[in-house]
Design a protein that fits this description.
43% of the residues lie in helices and 11% in strands. The protein is an alpha/beta fold and 499 residues long. It folds into 2 domains: 217 residues, no CATH class; 236 residues, no CATH class. Helix 1 runs parallel beside helix 3. The chain starts with a helix and ends in a 7-residue tail after the last helix. The C terminus is likely disordered.
Length: 499
């Protein structure tokens, strides 16, 4: 048993070092080019980690208070030091818990039994590792406790046999078998990447030799655990945490093939994207603040602050650039532009898909951006090989699509947005969109990328356009009504006159 002074030293060491430990890359794979919006696309951290550290802090405070009235060399009785120390060793040792770690001291629900009243039972997993693919359970049970349990079961069996009218009741299940059964049951409810999580049980105070020299029923229990799919380990390897500066990360880049949603297709053909001098445009929106903000942001973005096609040219590898979208998005864009599009925008809409002089009358006509015409993604998935992205977001999008867009606590996402995102994720393509809220809902809880050394972004966010386009179009139509029409009306549409 560890002394009070030594326990305090160990608790302090764990508490101080745990403040510096990190398992996850601290950013999500999202390029964010919104104006005036914080770029807070960071991982949500390790669930339960802060709460676990606060438990250690409470133990440390209690031990320090005990030291004030007791000798430092006295043993610390009723301490959770062993449990916390073994958990810390499991957390920091990548040979035990593969990074990224997503949860500590997590309780996972068991299937609710038929006829059982109340909340379903749960089983504890000390560390959820490898982005949910591995569960680490630590048990500090001693061999003496296992043998005592067997003795008690033997006593119950003997007592039952001696009774003239034995009571028909089930015999108690040994702790290790009960634990193994519960972990196995829980894993069936938490399928990830088409597989149950791998379960590792660390018997931190047992050795193989002790088991071999003991009651054969102990070894039999461990064999049964393997039938449950549980890998049993003895002891817990010690590990010295080495905190070194992280190497500089590569900036995120879009994939060569970029998946477009409706908002970006409309932005690509919008008058404000191609107008020669957007800074001189004078619009007459209504007094709604969101309309004024949307228009001013778009004009500011197009006035060389963050112009859309300039942004594409600066960010992408233009030698291999190709834009794609779904047939559904093409049809939706035509439907929208039929209602709000001007003549030049409708002409560009045809050109963006079918070819033709897309850049006619554009301020980019002398330096067109590659990647056009936009190609249509095949429903058969023939466009690209296997996706390279971690499929956490893909599976979340697929699940939401099957639930009418319901994302639980994250709200709802429209079905056509989900289908667009899924088309990009299935192929490992960056999806270019202005739909910030939907993307935030989809990546909630996302911890990592399968290939962490990759710098390819999953999503690329740009400033929303649709509202300002509509307002610009209304302003332009009003101008046409107020001025005499002439044969050069379409070219005049490209300049919004100051009133």
């Amino acid at each position: 048993m560890t002394s009070i002074a030594e326990s305090i030293r160990i608790y302090k060491e764990i508490f101080e070092q745990s403040a510096l430990f990190t398992s996850n890359d601290d950013r999500l794979l999202v390029i964010d080019n919104w104006l005036d919006v914080p770029n807070d696309w960071t991982c949500s951290g390790i669930e339960g980690y802060h709460r676990w550290r606060m438990l250690i802090r409470a133990e440390l405070i209690a031990a320090e208070e005990l030291l004030q009235t007791n000798d430092a060399n006295e043993p610390l009785i009723s301490s959770n030091l062993i449990a916390h120390w073994t958990c810390w060793m499991a957390i920091i040792n990548p040979a035990v818990s593969k990074h990224p770690i997503t949860a500590v001291n997590k309780y996972l629900m068991l299937p609710k039994r038929q006829g059982h009243k109340g909340k379903p039972k749960s089983v504890k997993v000390d560390v959820v590792a490898d982005a949910g693919r591995e569960w680490i359970r630590l048990s500090n049970i001693k061999l003496s406790s296992i043998l005592a349990e067997l003795t008690e079961i033997d006593s119950l069996i003997t007592s039952s046999e001696d009774e003239a009218d034995p009571v028909d009741q089930p015999m108690p299940v040994p702790f290790l078998l009960k634990l193994g059964h519960e972990l196995s049951e829980a894993s069936c409810r938490h399928i990830i990447h088409d597989q149950r999580p791998a379960i590792h049980l660390y018997l931190t105070r047992l050795t193989p030799q002790e088991i071999a020299d003991s009651d054969s029923r102990v070894a039999s229990q461990l064999e049964t655990l393997s039938l449950y799919g549980i890998q049993v380990h003895f002891g817990i390897p010690t590990y010295d945490l080495k905190l070194s500066p992280k190497p500089p990360r590569q900036p995120l880049k879009p994939s060569s093939n970029i998946n477009l949603d409706v908002s970006t297709i409309i932005a690509f053909i919008s008058l404000t994207t191609h107008i020669h001098d957007p800074a001189e445009a004078s619009l007459k929106p209504n007094n709604a603040n969101e309309h004024v903000r949307a228009i001013s942001n778009q004009l500011r973005q197009e006035s060389s602050v963050c112009a859309l096609f300039d942004l594409v040219r600066q960010t992408c590898d233009t030698d291999t650039l190709q834009f794609w979208t779904t047939q559904e998005n093409k049809e939706r864009t035509y439907s929208i532009m039929e209602k709000i599009g001007g003549a030049s925008e409708k002409r560009r809409l045809d050109c963006i898909f079918d070819g033709g002089d897309f850049w006619q009358g554009s301020r980019y006509s002398d330096s067109p951006v590659p990647g056009f015409p936009v190609k249509i993604i095949s429903d058969a998935g023939e466009d690209v090989a296997t996706a390279s992205f971690d499929d956490f977001v893909l599976r979340r999008a697929q699940k939401a699509l099957s639930s009418d867009g319901n994302m639980g606590s994250a709200g709802k996402v429209t079905s056509h947005t989900l289908r667009t995102v899924i088309a990009g994720l299935e192929r490992g393509w960056t999806t270019l969109t202005s739909n910030r809220q939907s993307i935030k809902a989809l990546v909630q809880g996302w911890h990592t990328h399968l290939h962490n050394n990759s710098s390819i972004a999953t999503f690329w966010l740009v400033e929303p356009r649709s509202l300002s386009e509509q307002m610009l179009e209304r302003s332009d139509r009003q101008r046409k009504l107020e001025q005499p029409q002439d044969s050069n009306a379409d070219s005049k549409q490209q300049t919004v006159n100051s009133k």
